Amino acid sequence: MAGTILVADDDQSIRTVLDQALSRANYVVRSTGNAATLYNWVLEGAGDIILTDVVMPDENGLDLLPRIKKIRPDVPVIVMSAQNTLLTAIKATERGAYDYLPKPFDLKELLQVVERALSKPKKSYRRGGQDDEDDTKIPLIGRSPAMQEIYRVLARLMGTDLTVLISGESGTGKELVARALHEYGKRKNGPFVPINMAAIPKELIESELFGHEKGAFTGADTRAIGRFEQAQGGTLFLDEIGDMPVEAQTRLLRVLQQGEYTTVGGRTAIKTDVRIVAATNRDLRQFVRQGLFREDLYYRLNVVPLRLPPLRERAEDIPDLARHFLTQTQEEGLPVKSIGSEALDRLKKHKWPGNVRELENLVRRLAALYSDDVIDTSIIDQELAPQVANGAGDVNIEDENLGTAVERHLSKYFAAHSGNLPPTGLYDRILREIERPLISLSLEATNGNQIKAADLLGVNRNTLRKKIRELDIQVVRGLK
């Protein structure tokens, strides 16, 4: 084996480690610090593999990449960059890079990528029309190693329709990742349709997902389309998938297997063309063991697992995130603020149980409530102390009455529609949702005795029997 490796980077350590590792295989390393020399070498036919930095004195490596791939499409090109943003990773992948390495990287990792590229060279994959993306619209912020790995995985997924399962604690930005997959992917011209399983009453989930026909159930006065139909040609984001009832899991599995579904009350199969991205803050593997989540559905969704790290695992990203949120508040008309270096250090030591969402809320409070141009440590301590002492953000529902609980649940339900209205017939559907547990618990309390249950509820016995049939409630006599 013999060949040439072209390196366009001023870092001498890269050339040294490649020389030492590959000289035994008779590979020669040629190194330069500018794009023009690299391009001339490529024109001469040199190079079995190319390593290039993004920032060079005469040209951007990402701009040079398409020209290299045009004349030498089969040569693997590895892009290295200190511009560690999601957009850099996406552009490198879209313009044909074999791999993308954010700086600083472990030289052992570089060797592994080089050896893999030499042993199994890949065909390039190019997509047009991506050169004018706006760097200011990058949806994810952070240059930590944990986020760099996320960027690399996302970049590789942009040109695919693979199903992705995003896991992570609440507030880590799971929907932002899902939106990035959509907005920078092959379905970006289609709709992005989110649905939060935790916010939809379980009796309504199938109707919400698949739609229903007129007359399918009480209150279904018109035909309503579901989220699958709304997302046709685009991306369907199933948030908090762990809260999906088992019955709805079965229907979802059938859709993923067969690529078609029927509306509630419908008979005609409808072909579906959507990319599925799911998210959860639960341990679905534990749910599978407990029988709360279908194992076959788990593996259908977990084609590409993606774990978002909590903010405490990437504390080095906090200054960038804080500055990003301050910029947003300024664009919204709030006064210009900055956070002192010691105050930033204090933020980095906080545990952030609410993750990025908690940090964003804090920054917005700082911008709105304090007149100081520079936020210092005393202000940060004042803001964080009550949260630590009182457990801010916890919802105490022990003393909550039924009306408040229903209002809270319905507020989440309306919010899940992102400003749009739910399907018509909401009144009857909500009453049906409340009736089922009310009747079931009443029957359980009376040991399955329908006469006693009817008396307890204050309804006619025939009315109770009708409701039991309509709601498909299982009556077991002699319950303890």
Description:
α1 (12-22) links the parallel β1 and β2. This protein is α/β, with parallel strands linked by helices. The chain has a five-stranded parallel beta sheet with strand order 2-1-3-4-5, sandwiched between helices. Mean pLDDT is 83; it is low at 122-136 and 387-395. The chain has 20 helices and 14 strands. α2 packs parallel to α3 (61-71), α14 runs parallel beside α16 (377-390) and α19 crosses α20 (461-470). The chain has four domains: 3-137, 3-Layer(aba) Sandwich (Rossmann fold), CATH 3.40.50; 145-307, P-loop containing nucleotide triphosphate hydrolases (Rossmann fold, 3-Layer(aba) Sandwich), CATH 3.40.50; 317-390, Helicase, Ruva Protein, domain 3, CATH 1.10.8; 425-470, Homeodomain-like (Arc Repressor Mutant, subunit A), CATH 1.10.10. The chain has helices at 12-22, 35-43, 61-71, 86-94, 107-119, 145-157, 174-183, 205-210, 227-230, 246-258, 284-289, 295-301, 318-331, 341-349, 355-369, 377-390, 402-415, 426-445, 450-457, 461-470, and strands spanning 3-8, 27-32, 49-53, 77-81, 99-102, 164-167, 192-196, 235-239, 260-261, 270-271, 275-280, 304-307, 338-339, 374-375. The chain is elongated and about 90 Å long. 45% of the residues lie in helices and 12% in strands. Keywords: Activator, ATP-binding, Cytoplasm, DNA-binding, Nitrogen fixation, Nucleotide-binding, Phosphoprotein, Repressor, Transcription, Transcription regulation, Two-component regulatory system. This is DNA-binding transcriptional regulator NtrC. Residues 4-118 form the Response regulatory domain.
